[in-house]
Specification:
The structure holds two protein chains of two kinds.
Chain A (H helix, E strand, L loop, with lengths): L4 E3 L2 E4 L5 E6 L4 E10 L3 E9 L2 E5 L6 E5 L5 E5 L8 E10 L11 E2 L3 E5 L1
Parallel strand pairs in A: 2-11
Antiparallel strand pairs in A: 1-3, 3-8, 4-5, 4-9, 5-6, 7-8, 9-10, 9-11
Chain B lengths: L8 E5 L4 E6 L9 E6 L6 E6 L4 E2 L4 E4 L5 E6 L8 E7 L17 E6 L1
Parallel strand pairs in B: 1-9
Antiparallel strand pairs in B: 2-7, 3-4, 3-8, 5-6, 6-7, 8-9
The chains are: A mainly beta, B mainly beta.
């Protein structure tokens, strides 16, 4: 158990809909990362938040957005869903206070949310 | 793109040491080598990381060559539960933002046989 929690575990929805995925980082971690894993693309970095602010962006579509709240949990919002958005979505956290941003800052992953768009 | 090269698959007998190689010939002096594994569709699990020196923890050992262009992850006594995809990752920084995203390649699919 990494200490990172994600809800829901599974999500089935229809094209055109909007969903929200939730992530709670390890206690004390300041950074949250979102990754997408699809069959044809592998694990891809989407976006990072650090202490409430966006820190880095990867291959995140404009239909997707994220935020990190004052209690450090994060939500990934996916809208106008398409069949190709079906994937596993992982959240990771790192940067406990005192080690934030250091070179040996290790990311710990949650169990993921499996999104199926029909 | 990932800056590492790994064999796509490997087999190992249960109880034997599993040695997983990784090439990272373009690694910079301040970049760390990280190893993660993913069992089935679970979240990637951190195994170990290193910069220059060899490292060992309760899960594995990491051997980094002196020129840092390659490394080997060693699982000393492999069990069936070690069957997974193993990712070797060189930690990158996003310029101007100090972020530390992980870039995953295809990894090595390690199968432990009874």
């Amino acid at each position: 158990d990494s200490g990172v929690t994600q809800t829901p575990k599974h999500l089935i929805t229809a094209t055109g809909q909007r969903v929200t995925l939730r992530c709670s980082p390890r206690s004390g971690d300041l950074s949250v990362y979102w990754y997408q894993q699809s069959l044809d693309q592998g694990l891809q970095f989407l976006i990072q938040y650090y202490n409430g602010e966006e820190r880095a962006k990867g291959n995140i579509l404009e239909r997707f957005s994220a935020q990190q709240f004052p209690d450090l949990h994060s939500e990934l919002n996916l809208s106008s869903l398409e069949l190709g958005d079906s994937a596993l979505y992982f959240c990771a956290s790192s940067a406990p206070r005192g080690l934030a941003g250091g070179p040996a800052d290790t990311q710990y992953f949650g169990p993921g949310t499996r999104l199926t768009v029909l | 793109d990932a800056k590492t090269t790994q064999p796509p698959s490997m087999d190992c007998a249960e109880g034997r040491a599993a040695n997983l190689p990784c090439n990272h010939s373009t690694i910079s002096g301040n970049e760390y080598v990280y190893w993660y594994r993913q069992i089935h569709s679970q979240g990637p699990q951190y195994i170990i990381h290193g910069l220059k020196n060899n490292e060992t923890n309760e899960m594995a050992s990491l051997i980094i060559t002196e020129d840092r262009k390659s490394s080997t992850l060693i699982l000393p006594h492999a069990t069936l539960r070690d069957t997974a995809v193993y990712y070797c990752i060189v930690r990158v920084s996003v310029k101007g933002q100090g972020a530390q995203k992980l870039v995953f390649g295809q990894g090595t699919r390690l199968t432990i046989n009874p």
